[in-house]
Amino acid sequence: MQHDLASQGWGSRVDQYDIIDKHTQSGLELVEKYVKFVKERTEIEQNYAKQLRNLTKKYNPKRGCKEEQECRFSNHQSFLDILNEMNDYAGQRELIAENMMMNICIELTKYLQELKMERKTHLSEAKKAQQSLESTYKQLDSSKKRFEREWREADKAAQYAEKTDQDINATKADVEKAKQQANMRTHIAEECKNDYAAQLQKYNKEQSQFYFSDMPLIFNKLQDMDERRVRKLAQGYVLFSDTERHVMPIIGKCLEGVTKAGTNVNERNDSIALIEQYKSGFERPGDLDFEDYSQGINRASSDSSLGTLGTPKGPLELLGKNRSKPFWLFSKKSKLSPSPSSLTTLSTPPAPSPANGPPSPKFGRDPLSYCLKEINKTVKPRISSFRTLGRTPTVTEDFGHLPPEQRRKRLQQKLDDIGKELQKEVDQSAALEKMKDVYEKNPQMGDPASLSPQINQTAQNVERLRGEFNKYEVMDSPLLATDALSYSSHSFNNNGSTHEPYSPDGTHSEEGTPDPSQAIYAEFDDDFEEEEEELVAPIGQCTAMYNFPGASEGTITMQEGEVLSVVEEDKGDGWTRVRRANGNEGYIPTSYVSISLSK
């Protein structure tokens, strides 16, 4: 029965010890090779995940940067969603590497050490059995040789005794002695023969035990060990795919998130969001009226009001005008569009020249030469004002650098933030008061005096936030009271109202019949009108309620409590033009001052 079992396994191949030894060693080396392969795979996965995370971190917008502000657009937000999904995807790759390391590399390495110890034990047992058999064989060979030697000696002794017995010259004593020696040698030979037979029986028994029991059992154990190794290695092969297959649903969700991010992009909503974000609240400028140069212009009148009626200019040409003022395309009244009353004046003959008074001292007797001399003064400032078009205005506390609509939104947002913070401080103050009341009624719960610093600090915070809230509320109130209709109405008044032009010396000049020579001076009328405006008398006074840095171009600094002269009222864009006693002029936020106009 045992022989039948042995014939089904490695035990039937007891003569293939060296082959079994090499085969089992090759199997263990394969396990080591597979563990090394999986380790390198995990390193690749970890490096891949690390590179993905670095990639997503590189393209994620930093807090407070311009890209973060653009996340309100769906295409920008979808890109951020894709970055988040890729970050999650990187996490799944890390999970794959971690599971492979734990379930395959560590487990197989531990199992490999056990197999090595077991294989070493089995081979040691086989070696001991083989050494025992070899030792028995040596004993058998030694007893055999002794038996052979002793049998020869006994044979010689017997032949000598027979020869002596037949020798007539030998004495009886010699014969007896020879016979005794032969008997002794024969007895010794018989003992060696018996020992040899016993050693032979022992060796045959051990040899049978070695080849039919010990070695087949050891080889079967090695076979079982190798089959377990193969089965464990096959499980490692399966885990190699199962580890990645288990995270595939989550990876699929990440990819679905990327697809969803692409489908969530709405170009129409992005366009609307852009409009809402940068809507200024200004109305579009009206059409320019036709200026009929076919009618004559009184030369004397044109001399005294040089360049009053210039060639119409586009929006970019207006940048050269009022270089010290903030530039809003739709904010100021356009001096390019003469009112209907001024057009009427053009068609009527002007009054005689003496009625207009003497020409401005700045022109002298030759206004044309003065204008030509002023070319170098006017061209460079115009170029510099083109360059300032791309500059970013300095951000001010009252958001005065923004257009009215954007300023209103930012002020409203600031009010909401301060209101939330104020409500939080008020609630905390109420909670502290209640806790103090509880401590006063139940002294064992705590000391009421310990809450005084917190109560005082909270009260200071509430007072500070209320002051800020009132300040921004004052800034925001003029803008909240201005709607689209008021903007439209005011824009119409600016473009269509009748206004009398001033001559450079500040005197009134009536428009007369156009003269061809006046077209030469049309390019310089903007600069002359700046000088005209500097001579305009104040229309009232204003008192500063807050400090204003005047950091942006065209503004003027202002200290709280300072009294300034109002030169030009707010035209709906939130700015008022003022003048100091030293003659410096500039714009300040209307909401920062208390204005009293002269009646």
TrEMBL record:
Pfam families: FCH (PF00611), HR1_TOCA (PF25610), SH3_1 (PF00018)
GO BP annotations, alphabetical order: endocytosis; signal transduction
Annotated stretches, region: Disordered: 334-367, 491-518
SH3 domain residues: 537-598
Coiled-coil parts of chain: 112-181
Keywords carried by this UniProt record: Cell membrane, Coiled coil, Cytoplasm, Cytoskeleton, Endocytosis, Lipid-binding, Lysosome, Membrane, SH3 domain
Low complexity compositional bias, start-end: 336-348
Principal subcellular localisation of the protein: membrane
Family: Belongs to the FNBP1 family.
GO MF entry, a single one: lipid binding
Protein name in UniProt: Thyroid hormone receptor interactor 10a
Domain F-BAR: residue ranges: 1-270
Biased composition (Pro residues): 349-361
Source organism: Salmo trutta (Brown trout)
GO cellular component, one term: cytoskeleton
Compartments (UniProt record): Cell membrane; Cytoplasm, Cell cortex; Cytoplasm, Cytoskeleton; Lysosome
Cited InterPro entries: AH/BAR_dom_sf, F_BAR_dom, FCH_dom, HR1_CIP4_FNBP1L, HR1_rho-bd, HR1_TOCA, SH3-like_dom_sf, SH3_domain
Polar residues biased stretches: 491-500
Keyword Membrane annotated: yes
Domain REM-1: 401-478
Domain of life: Eukaryota
